[in-house]
Amino acid sequence: MDDPSKTSFPFHRRARRLRPTAVFLVLLVASPALSAGTDLSLEQAIRLGRTEAREVAAAEARLAAGQARADLARGFRKGTLSLSEVWVRTDSPAEVFALELSQERFSFSDFVAGDPNHPDALESATTRLQLDVPLYTAGELGSRVEQASLEAEALADDLGTAGDRAGLAAGEAWIRLAEARERVALIERSLDTVKAHAHRAGLLVEQGMAVESDRLRAEVEMARVADLLSAARSGNRVAQAQLSFVLNRPLDTAWSLTPLAEPPELPQIQDLLRSADDRTDLAAARRRLSIAQLEEKVARSARLPRAGFVARYDLVDDTPFGAEGNHTSLMVQARVDLWTGGRHRAAVAAAGADAERAAHEVEAFAAGVRLAVLAAHSEATSARERYATALAAQAAARENERILKARFQQGVAPLLDLLDATSARREAEARELIARADSHRTVLRLWVSAGRTLDRWRLINPDAEPDPAPRPMAGSAHPSTALGDIPTDTPKSETSTELRGERP
After folding, report:
1. What is the pLDDT of residues 224-244, one digit of tens each?
2. Is there a domain that residue 378 lies in?
3. What span, in angstroms and rounded, lies between the C-alpha atoms of 69 and 152?
4. Spatial CB neighbours of 273, under 8 Å, sequence gap ≥ 6
5. What distance in Å separates the CA atoms of residue 210 and residue 419, rounded to the nearest whole number?
6. Residues 218, 282: one domain?
7. Other C-beta atoms lying within 10 Å of the C-beta of residue 391
8. Given the DSSP bridges, would you call strands 122-136 and 80-90 parallel, antiparallel or unpaired?
C-alpha cells in the first residue's frame, strides 16, 4: 500500500477545475465599468453558480476540514514530544527515599541518623521531556490514515457534486427568468393586438357595420389578456429574485439576459450511460464503502498486541525547573488484551455488517444512477418532440390569424373568429416557449444525471457566444426600465434582450 502521507489527492485537480477563473469572475462582476454592455448567458449563469453558490462554499469548507483531518491522522505516526513539570510534597517513606536519590541529595549518614519509617516531608519538582513513538499498532494506525485520506477524497468528490448541483440550479433559474420575460413580451404583444381589434370594432359599430356585442366581446378579451399580463409580470419579478438568490446576489438585483436560444441536441444515450459510472457522488459513495471495509480491519487489529517506544529525560530538584539531578530513561512497552468479555468479537461483527450494508447501498446507488440517466434521457427526448410539435402548431396558428385578419379587413369574417384566432396564436406561442424552456431544462438535468460536469456544458451547446463575464444589469440595485417599455412589434428572438425587468 502506498504511503498515504505521499498520496496526491485528486481533489486538488477537481478544486482547480471547479474554480479556474473564480477570482477573475468576481472582479469582473464587481466592476461596473467592465460589466457594461454584457448580457448574462446560460453558460455564464452555470459557471457563476458553480463558483459563487453558498452550497459550494460550504462544500469547500468541508473539504478543507477533511484535508486537515487527514493530516491529523498522519501526524499520529510521528509520535509525540511533550514537556511537563510536576511538583510534589510528601512524607511517604518510599517516595522520600526515591526523590532524594533522584535529586542526587541522598546521604547515608542522614538516612541512618533519622527514622526511615517517619521521614520529614520533602518537596520535589520534576521537569520531564518525553518522546512517545508507536512501534506496532497491528495495522490500526495505517488503516485510520487510509480512512482519513479516503474521506478527504470523498469530500473532494462531494465538492464536484455540489458544484454541479449549484450550476444546475443556476441554469434552471436562468431558464425560468428568460421564459418569464419572454412570456411577458408575448402577452404584451397580444394585448396590443386585442386593443387594436377592439378599437377597430368600435369604429365599425359607429359606422353601423358591426353590432355592439362585437365591441364588448373584444373588450372582454382585452381584460382577460390584461389579467394574464399582470400574472406574467409577477412571475417575472419572482424569477428574477430567485436567480439572484441562487447566484448569491441581493434579491433586488436585475439581470440582463441573452435570448433563450434553440435547445441543444441530445447526447447519445450510450455515451451518457458510460459517463454515469464516473459521477462524483457515486465515486464518493465507493470511497466511503472502502472506509467501511477498512473499519472491519481496524476492529480485527484490536485483538493483536501493540508496542511503543518511550524516551524520557528528567531534571529533578526541590524547586520547579531546577536541575540538581538529571536522568534518562528508554523503554519499550508492549500490551495485548487477553480477554475483553466479547467486545472485540462484537466490534468485528458490527463492522462487517456495516461494510455489507454499505456495499448493497452502493450497488443500489449505481443501478439508480443508470435508471436516472434513462429517465432523464426519456424526458429530454419527449421535451424535444413537444418542442417540434409546438413549432408546427405555432406556424399554423400564425398563418390562421393572418388569413382571418385579411378576411376581417375585407368584411367577410366576423370579429369573433379573429379574436379566437388571436387567442389560439397566443396559446401556440406560449406552448412553444414552454416546450423550448423545458427542452433546455431536461437536457441540463440529463447532463448532470450522466455525471458530466457543467463546466463543459458548452460542448453540447457550441452555438453560444462566449461572453467575457456575466454581470448584473447596470444600476441593478435600482432598475428603472419598465416592462411596458417593450415595443409591441418586437420580434420573438429579440424579446429577452429588450426586456430588463422590474425591481421586486
Report:
1. 889 999 999 999 999 999 999
2. yes
3. 8
4. 370, 373, 374, 450
5. 15
6. yes
7. 16
8. antiparallel
Give the chain's end-to-end CA distance (angstroms, integer): 59
pLDDT at 455: 52
- Rounded to the nearest angstrom, the gap between the alpha carbon of residue 211 and the centroid of all alpha carbons in its chain is 62
Cell numbers at residue 127, please? 521537569
Cα–Cα dist 151/105, whole Å: 56
Domain with residue 86: its CATH number is 2.20.200.10
Domain extent, residue 208, equals 21-75+142-293+346-498
The cell for 245 is 438568490
C-alpha cell at 491: 420580434
* pTM of structure: 0.71
Q: Report d(CA 348, CA 326) in Å as an integer.
A: 46
Average pLDDT over residues 7-21: 40
- Give the residue among 260, 268, 290, 316 at the shortest CA–CA distance from 433: 260
- Cα separation, 334 vs 253, whole angstroms: 67
User: Does the residue 298 lie in any domain?
Assistant: no
466 and 405 within one domain: yes
The residues, ordered by sequence, that sit 6+ positions from 37 with a Cβ below 8 Å of its Cβ are: none
The reply to whether 2 falls in a domain is: no
Same domain, 119 and 260: no
Which residue(s) pair with 332 in the sheet?
309
Residues 152 and 28 in one domain: yes
Beta-bridge partners for 34? none
Compare 106 and 225 and report the one with higher pLDDT: 225
DSSP string, 81-121: EEEEEEEEEE--HHHHHHHHHHTT---HHHHHHS-TTSPPP
Determine the residue type at 43: E
CA distance 116 to 97: 8
Q: Are 413 and 204 spatial neighbours (Cβ–Cβ below 8 Å)?
A: no
- The string of pLDDT tens digits covering residues 240-284 is 999 999 998 999 888 889 888 888 888 788 888 888 888 999 999
